[in-house]
Every structure is written in C-alpha cells, then in structure tokens.
Write a sequence for this structure.
C-alpha cells in the first residue's frame, strides 16, 4: 500500500514538472556520450576478439571486423582450460557465499536476537576483518595452510574468504535482526520451539530475501577476489578466472586479437551474471552500504 | 524467572562459536603472527626467524620504494575516493532529479546499470583489457594517430611520468559506478516534493544540488568515503596486472611492495613490517573516520 501511494504521488508530481524541450536532449546526449565512453572497452574487446590477426593488422583496432574468426577465442579457451577455471570459480564462490551467509546468520542471531553480553564488542573486533589489509594475514595463513596440508586447495580459499566476508554479513544481519518483531519469537517460544527451531523455521523464512541479496554479493566479491586465490591456488587446475586473468601479464607481447579474446572471455561470465542479477546488485549494494 | 532468562541468554553464545573461532584462526592469529614476524629476519624456510628488533622498520624509513608507495596511495585516495564521489554525486543527481523527471525511470535505471558495470568485473580481467588499450601499440595511441595527434601518443604504462595517471584513470572508471548506485538509492528516500518546491522557487539545478542533494546524502557520502578509503589503502590487483609496480617502482603501493617481498625476494620479516604499518594506518584512519561520523550523527539529532 505504501508503494502504491508513493507511485501515485510521483506520477502526479511528474505532470506538474515542466518538460523543457531542447535542453533535455542535450543533457541526455552528454550522458550517452559518457556512457559510451564507459562501455567502450567492452566494445573494443568484443569487436577485436572475432577478427583475424591480419584483419587487425590491416585495419586497426577501431575498425569493425571484416572477417569472422573464432580462432583467438578457441585458443584461449583451450590453452587456459577455461571450462575448468569457470567450474573452480563457481565452486569457490558458491561455497564461500554459503559459508559466509551461515556464519553471519549464526553470529547475528546471537547478537541481534540473543542480545548476548559482549555482542557489541564482537562487532567492533570484527571491524578488523574489514580493515586489515589481506597482506597482513596472508603470510601466516600461507604458512599455516602448509602445516595442515591445505595449501593449494580450494578449501583453504573458501575458508579464508568466507570468514573474512562474515564480518560484513554479521553487521548487516545483526542490525536487521535487532529490529525483528519480538512478538513473533515470543509466540514461538510459547509453542515450545527451541532456539534452533526458531532460527530456521521462524527467522530464516522471513529473512530469505535479505539472505539472498547477501549471498549474491558474497558470490560476486569472491569471484573477483585476487590476492588470496593467487597465493593459495598455485596449480593450474585449482585456479579461478580472476587468477587466470591476473597471471596473463606479459600478454602485451602477444597477438592483440588473443588479448581481446582473453579479456572478452574473462568478463563474459560476470556480464551474464550482471544481466540476471542487475536489480539485486544495483539496489542491494546500497542496502549493505547504509545499514 | 529472571534467573532462567539470563541462563537462557547464555545459550545464544553457542551460536557465535563457529564465527568467533573462524575469526580467531583466520584473522586474529595471523595478524598477531605477522606483527611478530615483522621484528625478525626470516627467509620463510626451515631456518627459523631471528629476532632483530626494530631493524626492519628502521630500514623502511630509508627505503625510497616504501615512501614512494605511500605517496602513490595518497594519489589513489584521490582517484578512488574523491573523484568518484564527486562524479557519482553529479551523475546521481542528474539521473534522479533530471533524467527520471524529463524522460523516464527506465532511462535512469539504464544509465545506472551501464555506469555500474565496470565495478563488478574481476579487476584482473579489466586490467588485461586496459593494459591492452594503454600499451604503446594499443588503442589510445591508435586513436590519437587517427585524429592526427601523434605527438600525444605515449607509452602510458611504461613511462614513469604517465603510468600513475593511467592507473588512476582506470581506478576512477571502476569506482564511479559504486558511488552512483549508493547515492541513487539514498536519493530514493528524499521526498520529491522538496525538489518541486525548490523548482517552483526557481532554484537552479545547481542550487538544488547544493541545498538538497548533498545534505540529504550525507550519510551515504560518509559510508562511501569510508569504504573507498579503506579500499584505496589496499589497492593491489590493478597494480599487479597493469604495471607490477613499475616502471622503476613508479606505481608501487604498500600492498604490492609487501606481496613482492613476501613471495619474490623472500624477505618475509621486511614484508611483514610493511604490512603491519599498512594495517596500523588503515585502522587509525578507520577509527578517525568512524569518530567523525558518530559525532556528526550526534550533532544531527
């Protein structure tokens, strides 16, 4: 109902506002130029990835392709074993997102609903996870993971990044749960529901949309994570897309169509993800930022 | 009753065990270990670390690469925090207050999505793309040649004079979308009648921007400033991919420098000292900022 009324006031007000004729097209034009500039690198990657090297050499990077050649894409796909990297990225990001959401939820349940003593202190301590640069953790973690035999395993990356993201999730969910209606929980307590049952059967269903947004963000953040996977995933078979792209350096010497193909493939999964979750991503980031 | 309630409350602690255990093992212990290592000299191998006191820190004070990295960080604060916030504010205000009203909500959402896209790409993939655009025989130089400005063609990433600016430009490209999206959602809670009243009073777009948009967005500006500031102090992937800190350390940052000493020169103690100083700087800055924010919030109420 609230949304309906706000929409109606909005349309009424829009009619009152003057629509100036020419000036608005100028503003729109300027914005479109800016947007074209922002998206130009994507266009370049797409256009040059499908050219033959000779077409590129003859007509330069800005010309539209006169040839259609998937060799560069196929080569990159095969030489870096792209499907494997894709699988690793999905596996690591998915598991990390689930781990981080579950840990955040458990923390937030104790802090937001349980109001445990020291809960605020824990929140302050967790700030360290957000602020400390990963470089200040990476060497001891590297050493520890070698001691326990987790070095060069995807599990080590999942555990580390999952715990790091938990700090943000705990903040967000604690403040959401602090305003959770007490009556609902008390009603469940009267029905003799245990704490564990209340968490999973009362709170999680209500919180599902927030948890989904949080998981989406953890997924994409983990996907883009670089330092930790770079250090911990040394063997080719364990690497993520982000690392595979990062170690392409020296690519400058390669054939330009190959570089275009590599960057096109490197950004494509994210663009597909973006098209699917565009609304969640562009709105949800703000939910997280302001809470 | 009271007793059972407090006993009941204690049971909630069980739920924090996994999270706190994870924090201790993966954040707290390594952080303390890193601090301890910074007082030793260690090659990272089987020969145990040897205590050297403040030697690493004393060396740091005379390391030109380290001081350079601090200066570069200050520049990246501008390109990661200040410039994107200003651009984000202007864009958000134009989209919210002008494009939505003059055209439609759809247009404004379309622009928002387009400007946001660079923000969610893997920085390494974006880096490969930009390294190709900026290289000596890359796109930028090809464009300059095509329009007859040959003399402006430069080795953007390979020349110490331009490398820092080129990297900064890429960072701005990445960051604007984040600021824009947060600011636009902040504007969604501003009462549109405020803008209409101002418009009826013949307030110019800029006057509305200054008198309504910026004050209403203060909480968002604070959050964005804090998060991007912390991110600016941690910049790593763009440097790794675009320049590897070069040429001649012209673009190196503390993160890259410590990574380099940890894993390339194996001067683990020295690298740990850099990482420790970086942590201290970040935490001090974070605390100062949060203090300012809570003071401002108190003043507002």
């Amino acid at each position: 109902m609230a949304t309906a009324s706000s929409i109606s006031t909005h349309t009424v007000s829009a009619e009152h506002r003057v629509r100036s004729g020419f000036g608005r097209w100028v503003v729109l034009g300027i914005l479109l130029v800016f947007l074209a500039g922002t998206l130009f690198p994507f266009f370049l990657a797409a256009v040059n990835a499908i050219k033959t090297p000779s077409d590129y050499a003859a007509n330069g990077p800005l010309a539209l392709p006169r040839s259609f050649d998937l060799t560069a894409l196929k080569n990159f796909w095969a030489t870096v074993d792209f499907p494997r990297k894709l699988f690793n990225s999905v596996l690591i990001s998915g598991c990390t997102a689930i781990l981080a959401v579950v840990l955040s939820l458990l923390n937030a349940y104790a802090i937001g609903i349980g109001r445990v003593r020291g809960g605020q202190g824990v929140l302050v301590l967790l700030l360290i996870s957000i602020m400390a640069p990963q470089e200040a953790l990476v060497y001891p973690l590297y050493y520890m993971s070698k001691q326990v035999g987790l070095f060069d395993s995807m599990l080590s990356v999942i555990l580390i990044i999952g715990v790091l993201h938990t700090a943000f999730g705990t903040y967000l969910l604690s403040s959401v749960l602090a305003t959770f209606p007490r009556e609902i929980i008390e009603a469940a307590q009267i029905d003799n529901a245990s704490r564990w049952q209340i968490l999973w059967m009362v709170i999680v269903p209500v919180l599902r949309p927030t948890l989904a947004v949080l998981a989406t963000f953890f997924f994409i953040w983990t996907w883009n994570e670089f330092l930790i996977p770079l250090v911990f995933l040394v063997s080719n078979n364990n690497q993520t897309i982000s690392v595979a792209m990062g170690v392409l350096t020296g690519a400058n010497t390669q054939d330009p169509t190959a570089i275009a193909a590599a960057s096109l493939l490197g950004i494509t999964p994210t663009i597909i993800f973006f098209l699917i979750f565009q609304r969640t991503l562009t709105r949800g980031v703000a939910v997280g930022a302001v809470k | 009753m009271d007793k059972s309630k407090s006993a009941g409350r204690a049971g909630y602690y069980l739920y924090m065990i996994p999270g706190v255990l994870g924090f201790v093992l993966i954040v707290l212990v390594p952080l303390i270990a890193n601090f301890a290592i910074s007082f030793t000299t260690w090659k990272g191998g089987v020969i145990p670390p040897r205590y050297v006191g403040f030697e690493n820190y004393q060396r740091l004070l005379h390391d030109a690469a380290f001081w350079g990295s601090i200066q570069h960080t200050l520049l990246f604060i501008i390109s990661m925090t200040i410039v994107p916030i200003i651009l984000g504010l202007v864009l958000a205000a134009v989209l919210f207050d002008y494009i939505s009203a003059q055209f439609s909500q759809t247009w404004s959402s379309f622009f928002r999505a387009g400007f946001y896209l660079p923000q969610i790409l893997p920085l390494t993939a974006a880096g490969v793309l930009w390294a190709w655009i900026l290289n000596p025989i890359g796109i930028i130089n090809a464009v300059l040649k095509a329009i007859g400005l040959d003399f402006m063609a430069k080795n953007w990433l390979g020349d110490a004079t331009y490398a820092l600016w080129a990297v900064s430009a890429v960072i701005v490209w990445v960051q604007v979308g984040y600021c824009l999206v947060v600011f636009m959602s902040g504007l969604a809670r501003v009462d549109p009648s405020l803008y209409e009243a101002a418009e009826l009073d013949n307030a110019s777009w800029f006057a509305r921007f200054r008198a309504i948009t910026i004050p209403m967005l203060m909480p968002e500006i604070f959050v964005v400033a804090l998060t991007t500031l912390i991110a600016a102090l941690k910049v790593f992937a763009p440097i790794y991919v675009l320049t590897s800190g070069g040429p001649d350390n012209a673009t190196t940052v503390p993160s890259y420098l410590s990574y380099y000493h940890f894993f390339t020169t194996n001067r683990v103690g020295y690298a740990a000292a850099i990482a420790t100083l970086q942590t201290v700087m970040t935490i001090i800055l974070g605390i100062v900022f949060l203090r300012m924010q809570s003071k401002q919030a108190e003043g507002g109420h």
Notes: Chain B has two domains: 2-37, 63-300. The CA atoms of residues 57 and 273 of chain B lie 6 Å apart.
